[in-house]
Amino acid sequence: MSLPTTPSATAAAATRLPLIAAATGATPDRRPVWFMRQAGRSLPEYREVRAGHGMLEACFDADLLTEITLQPVRRHGVDAAILFSDIVVPLRAAGIDLDIVAGTGPVIAEPVRDRAGIATIPQLLPESVGSVARGIGTLTAVLRSDHPGTALIGFAGAPFTLASYLIEGGPSRNYERTKSLMYSDPEAWHQLVGRLADITIAFLRMQLEAGVDAVQLFDSWAGMLSLADYREYVQPHSARVLAEVADFGRPRIHFGVGTGELLAAMGEAGADVVGVDWRLPLDTAQRRIGGDRALQGNLDPAILSAPWAVIDREVRRICAEADAAIATGARGHIFNLGHGVLPETDPTVLTRIVELVHTL
Amino acid sequence: MSLPTTPSATAAAATRLPLIAAATGATPDRRPVWFMRQAGRSLPEYREVRAGHGMLEACFDADLLTEITLQPVRRHGVDAAILFSDIVVPLRAAGIDLDIVAGTGPVIAEPVRDRAGIATIPQLLPESVGSVARGIGTLTAVLRSDHPGTALIGFAGAPFTLASYLIEGGPSRNYERTKSLMYSDPEAWHQLVGRLADITIAFLRMQLEAGVDAVQLFDSWAGMLSLADYREYVQPHSARVLAEVADFGRPRIHFGVGTGELLAAMGEAGADVVGVDWRLPLDTAQRRIGGDRALQGNLDPAILSAPWAVIDREVRRICAEADAAIATGARGHIFNLGHGVLPETDPTVLTRIVELVHTL
After folding, report:
1. Which of B176, B189, B341 to mutate to test the interface with A (most CBs of A within 10 A)?
2. Is A216 annotated in some ligand binding site?
3. Is residue B47 a part of any domain in this protein?
4. A265: pLDDT strictly greater than 60
5. What CATH number corresponds to the domain at position A86?
């Protein structure tokens, strides 16, 4: 365990991390790379550790979440660990009755669909995520000691995506109940999403206080919305979350799937790094986002089952497009997938990608 | 029953149909409107007729498909009937072992994943869809006689979407097997998709010969691809389908979900009408598509459960955006949803939308 460091010492150390350098416009020693959902079912060591433990149990157990978060760092040599968690963890910690069911996803016992339900949404008390904070403490110490080039990224779901789970009761195809509430009672909608933003802010501030080097705000399903609806119903709340963690001075990454039309608005919400899915070349994304945000992405996770020659070509294409984006104003590039690692992915392929990206 | 008409008489009559006028740059008497999946579970009369009959049975029974196709015309007064069918119908007719399972979707008995499997894909013989042709014959007669302003739109899945079902074995979230074949063996991919294009062409030509006034080629899942992959692996096959039915001189509508990045390429594939999902305003879509295609869309089907005031506002917004698109070169506007009617939709709302669109 390393000793506690002062904020300025932390900041100086942090800029030596390739991921933080790329996110802040400094020059990284190498192109940083990590993979969304790198800690998970693609790893045999993960399946072994998870055996006999439910998903939520693993997310709230300091030892389990520490081990699972570190596994891909040890195996792949990625430039970031991402806190092993789930979008619904802070909701559960706040006291909302839910579970994560294998093969289904989150299941909310009493979906929230009206003002009475909204009024019952609790606040997140830091002590309810004390085990997560303890895990982060261990993780930062282990990373500094054993993997000094590796950043720790905190994790939270954005208010819209949290709202969609709470309203639909779980994963959804069309989000009709979510949109119905949004359109039929905008005041109630903003009240709900505002309360969820409070929870997200509390969860992220706890992680930052515990020592994460950066945070990623996942608005997984924002791409289901038109730009006009995103701006009216979602962006103000995401912007508040990002603003209310800005005082830590650590990079804030913002990502959603299928957000080609929303990228500029997601950048304007206050992100330092905008994640891009595989549908849009990074240089095109840069033209949409404008300004000097860094970009994260964007290899199609479905490509990971193709022959290596295909993957090699695609990784090089993405790095070239990222360099073109940097040449026209992007702050930096963090290599990643365009969505999470699929469970059936061969993890040795991920290791090879890390090695390749570090040469590019 | 009306008497058979000559092709030229048919063409002259067809341009009097509002939908055909809008699709061809003529001036329709009213703004045409229909709804994707208007024939289906949102209608109690559909659920009644389907009771005791499987989905595939209904698609191959001339009487059932005729009745189901006509139901939304009678109820809503839409400007088009769309042939009641399913994307996998021509595959089944060609002899591929599959079923449509309630709650799941198509299930392919032996998914196609290699060259040996591709070599077994049969051709579609017109006699295997004779019942569909007979249904179309009845439908055109009934529509001319009882609903003279209503066009009949034929229906087929585009080769990529057919391929994705065949390869994955059914609906998919990530299309990893599809993309894996595409990337790992492009030659096999093009052979497969070429064979499926043959089936689609045969199915659409049968429908056109039987008398449909227009066709819609659904590439439901093309939006899972980047533009570069779409152009390389998909567009040539869709373009061949559209070219090989061009000699009928009837409008060809082309639609997929989440295709904001692909709209120009889908137009270039040869469509007369490009369908747009709800994510993109129609005037923005027009700027991407360019040229003088007509546009179809694009009310979010999830909005249909919102209060009428919201729907009213959204319908007016879409028509205004469509008019702006026409002012900058779009050939015309066919009002529709941005995806299919959801099963839980109140059908009386659809009727009100038809009435409203006809005033705009």
Report:
1. B176
2. no
3. yes
4. yes
5. 3.20.20.210
